[in-house]
Structures are given as C-alpha cells and as structure tokens.
Amino acid sequence: MEYSPILHSLHVVPSSHVKNKLFVFCIMLSLWVYMIYCCVGYCSTVPNLTYGAVNRHENDAEVDNQESSLGASRDLLNNENELDSRGDEWDEIRGEAKALDDNAMSGFLNESETKKLPQAIIIGVKKGGTRALLEFLRLHPDIRAVGAEPHFFDRNYDKGLDWYRELMPKSSEGQLTMEKTPSYYVTKEVPARIYTMSKDTKLIVVVRDPVTRAISDYTQTRSKKPDIPSFESLTFKNMSAGLIDTTWSAVQIGMYAKHLERWLQYFPMEQLLFVSGERLITDPAGEMARVQDFLGLRRVVTEKHFHFNPAKGFPCLKRPEGNSKPHCLGKTKGRTHPNINLEVVQRLRDFYKPFNSKFYHMIGHDFGWD
To answer: Any binding-site annotation on 219?
Structure first.
C-alpha cells in the first residue's frame, strides 16, 4: 500500500485535537475539584448554631445556682430572666438558621460584612414586652439583632468583648447591631460596663404598669413551678401590716425610678428611650415610629406589618407584600393571669405610686399607670 500524505495528515490532526481537548478537560476538572474542596473546608469551620446554643444553655445552667444579680433580691428562681426567653430561644435559633440559609449566597459574595459590638441595646424590663419589640425591629433591613439573650454584661462579662462580639450577627456598613437582655436594667454593675464598651450606646427600656408586670412575672414562674406560694403571700412581708416585700424581684423590678438613677450616672437621658409595653400592643406602629426615629433609622416598619390576634391579645407580624399567615410570638407569651385579691392589687398600686410619680418626672412622660 502506497504512502499517502493526505491520509497521514487526516490521521495526525484529529489525534492532536483530541489530546488538547483532554488536556483542557483535565485542567477544568482539577479546578472544580479544588473549588469543592475549598467550600467543604470553609463550611467545616462555620460554628454549628445549634451546638452553640446548647453550650449557652449549659453555661446558663452553671450560673443558675449563683446569687441573683439583684443583690438582696428574693426570688423563687435565680434565672428568672432566662426563663422569659428560654421557651422562645429555640424558635429564635431555628429562625436564625433559616435566615442564615436564605442569606448564605449574599454572605459569601459580600465580604464587607463583619461582626460588630452592638450600637443599641434593649436593656429591660422583664415581662415588659422586650421580645415583641425585638421581633418588630428585626423586620427592619438596617437592623441586625441576635435572637437569644447574651447576658454578657450581667453573667458573662468575664469572657471579654471578643467573646461578646462573636455572638453578634454579621452586618454591613450602615446596618445597626442590637441585642436584648431584660435583666440589664436592674443589675447594678451593667451601666458602668456598657459605658466602658461605648459611651455612645443607645439604650431602650420597655416599661409596663408595674402591678401588671409583677403579676405577669409571677404567672410565668408559676407555669414552671405550679406549687409555689400564692402571689398575695409573696407580695407582703407582713400581710396584716400591709408591708410590701421589696426583696422579691417581681416587686423590685417595677421600681423603675430607683434603677434609672444608676443609669443616669453614666448616660444622658437623650441616650435612653422608654417604650410603652401597653402601646406595643394597642399601637405597635406608633411605638415603632418612635423607636426607629430614636435609632436614626428610616420608618420602614409601619402599620402594614401588623395584624392583631384577638385570641392571643397582641399583634402578630405579617409580610405586607404577601398573603402569608401572620407570625405570632410563642405560646409562652400571652398567658392568662390568675385572679389576684383586689385589696392586694390596690395596696401594690399605692406602693408604686410615688415610684411612678418620680419616674414620670425623671423621663418627662406620664404613662398613666395610676
């Protein structure tokens, strides 16, 4: 058979072309394998949200046996403030996990997001409506807030600011980082500690009729310990003499003016906002307008975001652009209060009246609890 240059060229050219394709394919395959390897390595370094929450629960359990931060306060349970959120904390963690999934791609692409110390803190008060306010605020695109209560300035201060910062969600330039821990308002050491972190921190206090707040506090505790003494017997040191027991934290927390004096030693009144727990129920959009103005934010959260739930007795959240079912707070909110002796209620009102009067004068606003 004769040698044909034409046939030879037809044979050599396709072979070289195939080799080039294989070479390019191998390079691309190697790059894809390397990228997958990097992604797996990155994901393995991301802290497990649920595991971190369990650790927080274990840490909180360790402090349950320590003396209450209220000093000489007599309480039925030392972790009274943690109980307020423990029932909802797992719901919050699940919500944060979902938000993390929803924002995962944008988080990878936006490397400018960092963890920052909070510029604003909801510092109190327990059973005033702090959970509702936090949920309302988290609707705002310019706010990043951790759901679970860090208890840094009252229980975990020895762990340092770096530990505290790591608890915060990532935020971008222009976004406000927040947290809420209701026990801060009544803990003596907290004002100085927050001032040391930043003297410009904005502070929000959700207050409520102190008598109603005390009954709500008791109701929550009784839901955990059904065999506790009656509200009436716990309220008085001596019932026949009508002497109120101010060492019981359910009573002590509602002495708002006494606690405020400590905060004003470090922060000017302009840096504190007092939100009405009652108006968060009856006019949530109105109170949210005040809060957003105080924080220097656009009024994004409006009446379009609220739907009143008559069964629960407080507003639920909804997406204004859709027809999805409104989201209500957990079953631990809106408990039915026990019937309290009217004479005891009146004696408590008389007890709180001078404290309320002083509080109104200090903040320049009358909440009308009397």
So the answer is: no
